[in-house]
Amino acid sequence: MTIRQTMTTPTASALSFTETLSLLSLSIASLAIIANTFQGDGAPLVASLAFSGLAFASSFSMIRWLGPTFMKAGLKGKDMSKVHKKEIPETMGAVCAVVYLLIITVFIPFPFYKDIVAATSGGGNRDVVLETIEHVQNGRFLHRFPHSKLASYLSAILTVQSISILGIGDDLFDIRWRHKFFIPGIASIPLLIVYFVDFGVTHIVVPIPLRPYLGELLQLGFLYYLYMFAIAIFCPNSINILAGINGIEVSQSLVIAFLLVINDCYYLLNPYPHPATDSHLFSLYMLLPFIGVSLALWWHNWYPSRVFVGDTYCYFAGMVFAVVGILGHFSKTLLLLFIPQILNFIYSAPQLFRVVDCPRHRLPHFNARTNLMEPSVTEWQYPPKPIVTLGLKVLHQLHLLRVTINEDGTITESTNFTLLNLWLVWFGPKREDRLATEILIMQTIIGFLGLFIRHNFALLLFEKDNLSVL
Amino acid sequence: MTIRQTMTTPTASALSFTETLSLLSLSIASLAIIANTFQGDGAPLVASLAFSGLAFASSFSMIRWLGPTFMKAGLKGKDMSKVHKKEIPETMGAVCAVVYLLIITVFIPFPFYKDIVAATSGGGNRDVVLETIEHVQNGRFLHRFPHSKLASYLSAILTVQSISILGIGDDLFDIRWRHKFFIPGIASIPLLIVYFVDFGVTHIVVPIPLRPYLGELLQLGFLYYLYMFAIAIFCPNSINILAGINGIEVSQSLVIAFLLVINDCYYLLNPYPHPATDSHLFSLYMLLPFIGVSLALWWHNWYPSRVFVGDTYCYFAGMVFAVVGILGHFSKTLLLLFIPQILNFIYSAPQLFRVVDCPRHRLPHFNARTNLMEPSVTEWQYPPKPIVTLGLKVLHQLHLLRVTINEDGTITESTNFTLLNLWLVWFGPKREDRLATEILIMQTIIGFLGLFIRHNFALLLFEKDNLSVL
After folding, report:
1. Would you state the pLDDT for residue B311?
2. If DSSP states are collapsed to H, E and C, what string results for A38-105?
3. What's in the GO CC field (chains A, B) (predicted)?
4. Less Cβ around it within 10 Å: N or C end of chain A?
5. Are A73 and B73 inside 8 Å of each other by CB?
């Protein structure tokens, strides 16, 4: 807090002395750890943590420094929920994405290093690697990936990079909602293609209650790719529509990331050669640097925002989760952590599919007099159709909407269908950061509940915690 | 030509009827070929040709359709070498890059398909693949890549995608020359890292005359990575500085691409299991779709330009060549095809390294009265230092520059140090398209000469045409 106050203006593009010092120490410490890891027998997880420190420091500085450059290039937006609506840089998620991509690329030799030594000593003949793998797996922190995983790791990077390019395009050209819905689908193509070529396992374990009908394993084939495609489309879009108030996009992504990391650690602390260990190590390698860049962005995006994240960030974050869930083979667990986003999506459906009129922006309404956020409304210029009227009135009775009815009994306005507006309908107007905090607490509680269910009741559906398909 | 004239204005964003019909037929034919290839026993090279047709059709249409969108987003520029200096869309290379990346990603299963069949039948156990490879290599068009090449193919895509992101950033933010020089270096990191992890061969064959001193093979180690890094920085930048007149960037890239394709075919027509066949197949798979998207861009960018290509295209094109040369292990041949660019770079050095003042743009000067291009000049506000004066006068005597000297004998202006200006000094003012055509003819002749030398005199330096390092 003191650091923030030493800055002359909120959009100042220089780092304060304290900030420079802290970031510099963090970077030096991280570099020292990395150098140490690379020389010694290696500990990729420690290296990944250090790289995440670097990711934080570099994206923090770049977000600050590049502010004026972004403004000049027209990447800027007005914060509508403030008394003084000044313009601030937009699309800062692009900086995070680029730093993230660079970091996870440079990280590659750490989990894959042992292979190199074997490979080069054989002069380009990689068959020798297969024999050395066994010796490599002699401890938790020593654990490295077999070489064959490189292609799937690269496809993950490729997919995240694709969504970043397309996200930047979206932010630049302001693509319409019905088109941009499919953008993450296009970006997921590298992931699906490499999965097809490289791994190709498309059977799933059938839940116990369904086994009498379907058997133990079910070959999904094409449907499995459709499922992965759907996950890749859902995660980025669902973060993109739970948005509109300062800090909510980054914060919800950070909550999901932290919950996934906790879930990963649960597997790593299990007795060692658990079949899913590799998947969860992979997940950590992807998530730790993500947390690094996201924290840096969060610092600048939390109320009152000094930068906006842009659609780029929402897509980028959602795709990191989708990739981790798909390649880590825990997409069902992932969806448990997306429950608030799923609810928001279902609740939004009437507007997304145009049953109810959908304005360009549905963010809560800022009341400049009280300085509080209130539910935003869609005005009905013509009375809605009878069936829609009935539906809206039922939702109103169920406290799932607030409608205003004139003396004739016709609906003149209804609150917009978003979780944020519903929260304000339920608990009354509140300040922007208060609203964000409450939503995040709700999300965290539901997330922990999801993980608890996952690890305690999954055995009712499947006879063991994980099948060794990897 | 008739097609162009039917358009109402040069920036019209609709396809004419003839164009729609042609592109549609091309797309349908391509799709039919691809469907056929995928069902049958397969012919990746034929599929690659068909994909290139698709690449042409889709980038052609998108370049046309997206014109107004790009203009609205501020991606536009003025054509300075015309009487009517109207604004046209800029950075259209980004469209080519995105289409290209999508196409070569979707193409992956074709060269790698046989592996999948083996892999999935084994239920995720990929060891069985190793045994089937031998059976797969039973004919030229049947030839497919071993699975282990997937990582290096993916790293190629990743690198081209990185340069595209950074190129778009450059076009958006107009980065200064001394910074942007290193942008391709950053983009080459995925390539170098995966080379390090995946292949790691860093010894080179020593030319015969040097063997008494160095031995037959020389282990370069770190220096080899520096060499690849230098190639990756040089190729994109050298295309980016041989620029400034309508169509020159795309045309020179097309000439290089066609020469490389001819070189690749030379290897494919050799008796079959030539050790370098794989490398040159890989090269073709990368280059054919590149030619597809570039031809579409060329159509719109040739004199008089209706779109500009942007730095994005120059970087993208140069990086495709660098990747092909590095992963195909024919970087020396590649450099033979870059001789005009190398000469332009050396000739430009005095201005690039600020021995001589360097204006923001050094493109030839357009004389609106004659409608011809003339050499552009840098004016010397103060007389140059004696040593520089001497140098400039010597160059003038050698006909490698034109300087204007006032009555005192001091230099008042000198032509800018670019190949295009030098050409105009030598052969006098000419129209923009004439200048471009002559430069391209010169480039083509030098290129064929380079290939001729490569294949006829290489045996004087190396005892066989290629060493089987792959």
Report:
1. 93
2. HHCCCCHHHHHHHHHHHHHHHHHHHHHHHHHHHHHCCCEEECCCCCCCCEEECCCHHHHHHHHHHHHH
3. endoplasmic reticulum membrane
4. N
5. no
- For A110, the domain range is 10-337+436-461
Question: Residue B232: which pLDDT band, with cuts at 50, 70 and 90?
Answer: very high
The pLDDT of residue A134: 36
The string of pLDDT tens digits covering residues A219-238 is: 887 898 999 999 999 999 99
Tell me how far apart the alpha carbons of residues B413 and B219 are, in angstroms, rounded to a whole number: 49
Shared domain for B299 and B377, answered yes or no, is no
Our CA-based measurement puts residue B236 at a distance from the nearest CA of chain A, in whole angstroms, of: 19
The partner residue sitting opposite A123, judged by closest CB among B151, B194, B201, is B201
* Among chain B residues, CA nearest to A114: B197
User: Vertex A464, ends A460 and A468: CA angle to 5°?
Assistant: 145
Strand partners, A203: A219
B201 touches chain A (CB under 8 A): yes
Burial class (CB in 10 A: 0-12, 13-18, 19+), B304: middle
Residues of chain A below pLDDT 70: 1-11, 39-42, 113-148, 199-200, 271-275, 463-470
Half-sphere exposure of B132 (CA within 13 A, CB side): 19
| Chain B residues whose beta carbon lies within 8 Å of the beta carbon of residue A69 | 173
B194-203, B257-266, B400-409, B448-457: range with highest mean pLDDT:
B257-266
Are B281 and B363 contained in the same domain? no
Do A279 and A307 have their domain in common?
Answer: yes
* Residues B306 and B357 placed together within one structural domain of the fold: no
Burial class (CB in 10 A: 0-12, 13-18, 19+), A230: middle
How many domains, in total, are found in chain B?
A: 2
The pLDDT assigned to A130 comes to: 36
The answer on A309 and A219 residing in a single domain is yes
For the CA atoms of chain A, what is the radius of gyration?
24
pLDDT in tens, B216-228: 788 887 888 999 9
Dihedrals phi, psi of B301, to nearest 5 degrees: -105, -15
- Smallest Cβ–Cβ distance between B108 and the set A73, A169, A194 belongs to A194
Residues B409 and B329 in one domain: no
Question: d(Cα B333, Cα B310) in Å, to the nearest integer?
Answer: 27
Q: Which of residues 95-134 of B touch A (CB under 8 A)?
A: 98, 101-102, 105-106, 108-109, 112-113, 115-116, 119-120, 123-124, 126
Whether residue B282 is found in the same domain as residue B403 = no
Q: Same domain, yes or no, for A399 and A273?
A: no
Per-residue tokens: B257: 């691409």
Mutation target for B interface from A194, A220, A222, A329: give the one with most B CBs within 10 A: A194
Whether A283 contacts A260, CB under 8 Å: yes
Number of CB pairs, chain A paired with chain B, less than 8 A apart: 130
Contacts (Cβ under 8 Å, ≥6 apart) of A25: none
Indicate whether B343 belongs to any domain: no
Q: At what angle do helices B248-268 and B222-241 cross, to 10 degrees?
A: 130
Q: What is the ipTM of this complex?
A: 0.84
Q: Look-up: residue for tokens 């870059």?
A: B338
Q: What is the pLDDT of residue A276?
A: 77
B375 contacts B364 by C-beta, under 8 angstroms: yes
A347: in domain: no
Question: What is the C-alpha to C-alpha distance for residues A173 and B67, in angstroms, rounded to an integer?
Answer: 12
pLDDT at B253 over 60: yes
Nearest-CB residue to A165 (from B98, B112, B126):
B98
The answer to whether residue A153 sits within a structural domain is yes
What residues of chain B lie within 8 A of the CB of A467, using their CB?
none
Radius of gyration of chain B from Cα atoms?
24
pLDDT tens figures, B51-93: 999 999 999 999 999 999 999 988 999 998 899 888 999 999 9
User: pLDDT band at residue B240, thresholds of 50, 70 and 90?
Assistant: very high
